[in-house]
Amino acid sequence: MAGRKTIVFSLILSLMAAANAVPFDFYYLILMWPGAYCEDSDNGCCVPKYGYPAEDFFVDDFQTFNVSINKPITRCNGSPFDANKLDPIENSINHYWSNIKCPPTDGVNSWKSAWNSYGVCSGLKQLDYFKAALNLRKQADVLGALAAQGIEPDYKLYSTEMIRWAVSQKLGVTPGLQCKDGPFGKKQLYQVYLCVDTDAKTFIECPKMPKLSCPDAVVFHPFYTWMLNATAAAAFDSRILLPTETALN
Ligand SMILES: *[C@@H]1O[C@H](CO)[C@@H](O)[C@H](O)[C@H]1NC(C)=O
Ligand SMILES: *[C@@H]1O[C@H](CO)[C@@H](O)[C@H](O)[C@H]1NC(C)=O
């Protein structure tokens, strides 16, 4: 009898634990503009080992954040990263969650680090965590939202207020903007922070914005895949993919 009670009791405990599985309040979806990275990086930017990325904003990170402690929640218990589980979204993750660091990388380390830090805290399966971030990036279509208001990566200076407004026109929520050193002593648009509900689907107004900084006017630097150094990658792999925009799965 006592044994059965114990079983029922531990079942209740584990159900409670499951209901409570996400120790966070919302996600930060952090998108980055590769043109700014290339411009500001001392080592330039390189074609990743698997081939060319998209000429668009990339996912930089997808963080689980806890408002009450005002910190990202990291390194929960969860299954270890398994790169093979990303096979179904290989094309899309290669193009839109790309790592253009030099020397060239295969991207796996950035995905592994995102999963081990935040993904394991999300309560999602590994594939679903990455799919969610990639879908949100696509849904946000920041490049399209900016273009709709005449804001293009054409090296011109744009008002940060206009950039925020353009994104909010499309998404109904206000983004955070982070800048990087740019040409001629100006700052340039580098990252866009968007907040997402724990459902990993819905953009929300940020309950808390990290300390980000951009001056009133910023350069929107161009990005073309020809800016990426391909010499370094060719040494690794001769099967470099061609740039493509038809990379959605
Ligand atoms: C945030 O962290 C605190 C302290 O670890 C925890 O008590 C709280 O339950 C967390 N918030 C959520 C939504 O889980
Ligand atoms: C491209 O990469 C190669 C190999 O790492 C390096 O020797 C070369 O200087 C780089 N080119 C540019 C333009 O940075």
UniProtKB/TrEMBL annotation:
Keywords associated with the record: Disulfide bond, Signal
List the molecular function annotations (GO) for this entry.
ribonuclease T2 activity; RNA binding
**Signal sequence, renumbered to the chain:** 1-21
Provide GO CC annotations from the record.
Answer: extracellular region
The family database entries (PANTHER family) matched by this protein are listed as:
OS09G0537700 PROTEIN (PTHR11240:SF47), RIBONUCLEASE T2 (PTHR11240)
The Swiss-Prot or TrEMBL record describes its family as follows:
Belongs to the RNase T2 family.
| Designated name of the protein | Uncharacterized protein
Q: Which organism is it from?
A: Paspalum vaginatum
Instruction: Give the lineage.
Output: Eukaryota, Viridiplantae, Streptophyta, Embryophyta, Tracheophyta
